[in-house]
Every structure is written in structure tokens, then in C-alpha cells.
Amino acid sequence: MALSTAFLSEDQFTCSICLDVFTNPVSTPCGHSFCQACISSYWDGGGGAKCYLCPLCKESFRKRPELHVNRTLKEITEQFKQMADTEVGTGGGGGGGGGGGGEEANSHPHHHPPLPSGPRPGEMPGSLFAEMKTRFQQLPTSGTPPATFPHPNSPHPQRPTQTNAHPHPSHEAQTHEHHDPPIPYSPSRRYTLSGPAESSPKLPLCPAHLRGLEIFCRTDQTCICSVCVETAEHRGHSVIPAKREWHIKKSQLGITEVELKDLISERERKVEEIQNSLRDIQTAAERETVGSVCVFSKLVSSVERCQAEVLEVIEMARRAAEHRAQSLVRELEQEIAELKKRSTALNQLVQSEDYILFLKTFPAVSSTPQTRDWSDARVVSELTSGVVLRTVTQMMERFQEDLRKLPEIWQQSPSEQSVSRSNPKVRRVQEYAADITLDPNTAHPRLYISVDGKQVCCGDRYQPVPDNPERFDRVVCVLGREGFSSGRHYWEVEVGGKTDWDLGVASQSINRKGKITVSPAHGYWFLSLRDRTDFAFRTEPSTNLGLNLRPSRVGIYVDCDKGLVSFYNVEARVLIYTFMDNFPDTILPFFSPCTNKSGRNEAPLIICPVATTE
Question: The whole model's pTM is what?
Fold first, then answer.
């Protein structure tokens, strides 16, 4: 047995976390082995890390590995402990420590006991040792080269040469008359072929007791000596060997380092993603700019060409009218000349005193000459009726309206929503500010209206209010007093940090009792917020709006004549959403603070005075 244990190193059976012989050893996917309790405590103390590291090779596992006891390594470790305990027991009986065996060795210095044919108590059979050797060599070790195991029955085992190696007891007994006392086994000491491992580096001394600072007090987070543990200052504290705590803390630093690297990598990827997005936006902006310039250039060219054609048509029509007018004038002038000539002849005949000549020429000059009927003769052109001008004017108005919508269409583009852009139209709509107040007669019984009619919030209890026909009895909402059937109107509402709200307009003829369906088809046009982040315009189904800028003040603008309702982020001066429809009758401002959600949404909706945004 002495031959077998001399070639086994306790390092190969030591957990690198607790620095003690394995207890219920388990192996990680990377091949390293630890005590089951040690690696579990190590991973449990990782502070909620997103990955799990091997304390030795630092390989990370996104999912915590399911560890099972390595039964082969456990059997080898248990056998090693038994071998070590047996060696300590036999060494104590055969050494020179003062026993019967010692005296027998001194009295018979040259007596050699016969070698037993089978294994002695405490030794392993050769076949079992060979199997253990094969199994152990297949197990990975934590950075140490695999040990060379000689067969226990080999007459001349090859041993590594070391300067302070102790000879094997069986050989030493043949050359000396007495044995050196064996070194007893201790769990805190490591044995190799050459005996106990070299002592650890010299530890700093405790200033109070001059002992090595080999213990760490977790309660006070300081290193202490073995004497300090028993003092009143540290009695009852949580202590651990300093070297073990050092290994644990180093491994935890390894986890932190990996987490920091992951965080850095994630943010570097995000920076790269943002930069790529910016480059894409710049490329798209250049492409849009070139395309827009090209389209508008073509549009200008088309307008100029159309203008030239219209002017040419007008000129041709003018010339045609002029030619017809000149022709008619010439014919009229000819007839006028003929009529004047006959008039002159009549005057001369009247003044003549020769009745014979008078009677002779009277029949020729007294009859009415044949002339053209000029009553229907006129010079008319469609251009003089303003048809072309009216048509061009109407086309220009529609075109200008479409051009005004272009910036809004660009702002509503999903690919450009991340770019904050000041909308000059906000200032224009603020010119149509209306003084809005809340109508208590329409408020749900749980809604509380301020005295000035500018604030509304939702309470927990129903108020004793009359159930008049215009009051909502199921949905917590309220309408404004002021109704609109024409013109443009604008108001602003402070929503602050509320988690839920509804704002917009509603038809005066909506159903207000029981469960209601909210959509433009049912007379509701409003914007809603749910759970702090979900913005939507309530259509069927709802139109979700991905807003990067959360408004704290919302502007509502309606154009009754055009059937338009728009919502603005007042602080950012950004258009949120626009909807076009036909308002069949009078519309009223619509407000809903929603339920207070146990105090999380208890803030009121506040109608604010409109201040012109610079």
C-alpha cells in the first residue's frame, strides 16, 4: 500500500474552491471537477449573473448546467481517503514513535519479513488499482499534468527524482537499523511522492498576536489570525480561510469581468447600430433630396410648359376673336356705306323741284334695301368667361393643400420618427385657440370636476349625481361644454406622467349609456395612452403609434370644414397623428382620465391656456 499512495497526489483529489479533498465531486461541461456544494455556492453567490463561469478556465455557460455527482471520481476519492487513513495507521505502528513494532525493529535490524503473496490489509488489489488508474487518467485536471501511476506489484517503480524525497520504508528498512518516524496524514497538508508539499508563502503577521493572517472575517471584511477568532471582537462572526475567500473573490471578479465585457460589447454593437442607422438615414436623405429636387424640377417644367400652352391658347382665341370682329366690322362698314349712299340720294330727291324726275326715280329709292340681320352677330370667347382662370385657381388651391401635407407625411413616416423635428404648423394652429371647459352634466359619477371646469380626475367612489340623459354611466369620460360645427379650433391638455388617458373629440349624438364602441364610425375621434408607452388612435382595429417622444402636454386641433383632427406634442413641437373624416354633426371635446389604478394614475387632466410657441 505504501508503494501505491506514494505515487498519488492529493492535488489531484482537491477541490480548487474549498482547497480540500472532494466531497460529492461533480464535473462541469468544460471538464473541471469541484465539490457539489462548493460550485453550487459559488454560482449562487454570483449576484444574479446572466452567465455561469468555470472558476478555473473561466468558460461561461448562459444556462446553469445541471450537475450530477461524478460517481467514478467519488469512488476514487473515497478510496484515496481510505488509503491515506490506512497509511497513517500502519505508519504509526511500524515507526520509531515508541511502540511494540519499534522495539521489534530495533532488536532485529536485519530481519526481513517475507513478502505476502496477496494484498495486505489497507492495500488495493492490483486489478482494482489498475482500474482506478485508468479511470483517473481519463479525468481532466485543473492545470496539473496527469500523474504517473506504477502498478502496486511492480518490483521497481519509476519515481520522480527529488532532492528531499523520503525513501520508501521497505527499502530503508534494508539499509538502516531503525526507521524514521512517519509523517502523519493531515487534511490540511498535501502529500506527493517527495512528502509534504512546500509550505505556502509567508503570511503577514497579526499586529496583536504575531500570528499569520490566514483567516478572513466576512462580518468585518478583514483578515485575522486564528487567535483573533476567539477574541470578543470577532467571536460569533462568519469566518472562512483567507485563501479560500481569495479564490472565491477572484472567481467572482472573473464573472464581473465577463459581465462588463458583455455590457461593453452590447453597447459597442448598439453604437455601431446607431451609426449604421445614421448612415442609412443620411443616404436616404440624400436620395430623397435628389429625388425631390428632380420631381419638383419636373413639376416646375411641367407647370411652365402648361403655362405656355395656356397662354398660347389664350392668344389664339384672342386672335380668332379679333379676326372675326374685323370681318364683321368690314361687312358692317360696307352696309353702312351703302345705306349712307341711298340716304344721300333720298335727300337729293326730296330737294328736287322736278316732279317728273321725282316720280320717275321714286320707286327705285323708296324701297328698303336688302340688308343682313345683325341681331345675332357678336364676338364671343370662352376665355372672357373666366373658365380657364377658375380652373387653374382651383387646381392651384388643391395643389397647395397637398404640398402643405408633404412635411406632415414625412413626419409620420415610421423610418423617420426617431428624428425630432420642429413643426412650424404647431404655431399656426395655436392661433385658433379656443376656451374649453368641462361639462359636469356629462361626467361619469366617478369623475371629479374642478370648480373652474379645467381639471378632471377619477375617484374610487361614485358621487350622488342625477342620471340625466347626457351623462356617461359606464365609461369614465366627460365632454366639453363648447361644441363646434364649423371653423378651426385648438386646445391643449396637460397629461403629465399619467399612465392612461384619452383625448380628442366626439359627436354630440353619441350613445352615452352602457357599453359603447369607440371608433370614428361611432362618432369618436381620439388618441389614447395605455400602460405609459402604448399610444394608439382608436379606429377599428386601433392604429398603434410608435412614439419615441412621450408628450406631457397634448395639443388637439380640429378643422370642422375639412373633417380634420390632429394631435401635437406641444413641448417638442411635433405632430403626433392626423385623421381625416367627415363630421356629420356638432362635435365636442372629449376627455377621459381613465381609472386611477390604485393611485398610479390619479393625476388629473388639465386644460391649459394656449401660449404661442416660439
Answer: 0.36
